[in-house]
Amino acid sequence: YYLKEKDVGSMYPKAMIAGNMYPEHLGEAWNKGIKTLYDERVDELKPQLKKLKKYSDEYNFINSKQEAYKLAMNGGGYGKTGSDFSWQYDPMVIMKTTFKGQLSLLMLVEDLYLAGVQIVSMNTDGVVIKYNKSLSEIVLKIHTDWEKTTRYILEDTNYEKIIFRDVNNYIAYINDDKGNHLKYKMKGCFEID
Hints:
Shape: globular
Structural class: alpha+beta
Number of strands: 6
Distance between the termini: 32 Å
Strand content: 15-25%
Largest sheet: 6 strands, antiparallel
Radius of gyration: 18 Å
Order of helices and strands: EHHHHEEHEEE
Strand order of the largest sheet: 2-3-1-4-5-6
Number of helices: 5
């Protein structure tokens, strides 16, 4: 069996970009700003990270920059459209973005489920699945077809096991594609630093 998480990379910013959504009082330039951050993060910064030695000074610098972009898009862009204390506030934008993302993710989950894949858990931008290795080609086809349809990017994380309290509080044993242990992920109440 495989145990994997399929996480939608920058789902909410991507939904806003693809749907040309922006706070009405700020205009299209706001969406273009989010798109500029998204494009630089996905097309330049993340590929650079794959070429660098993990945790080197250059890696840490570029990773910090891409994490700042992620925070700016998710919390500073998408998130602020839902805060009535923000200059970016527009409840229609946050509702449209959320519905678009959630319905897209449900489409992925439905396709996986109908193919015989076990749905272990689901959160707002990803799903943890367990499936027999014999379904690998089907899962890959669902993955690529869904990306083409939605224009989102799915990021896979391979797990050996996950110990859940609930969907936001868990310890995961992360492996590489060959099953070698890479690291532990401790989330929510299990985080130590």
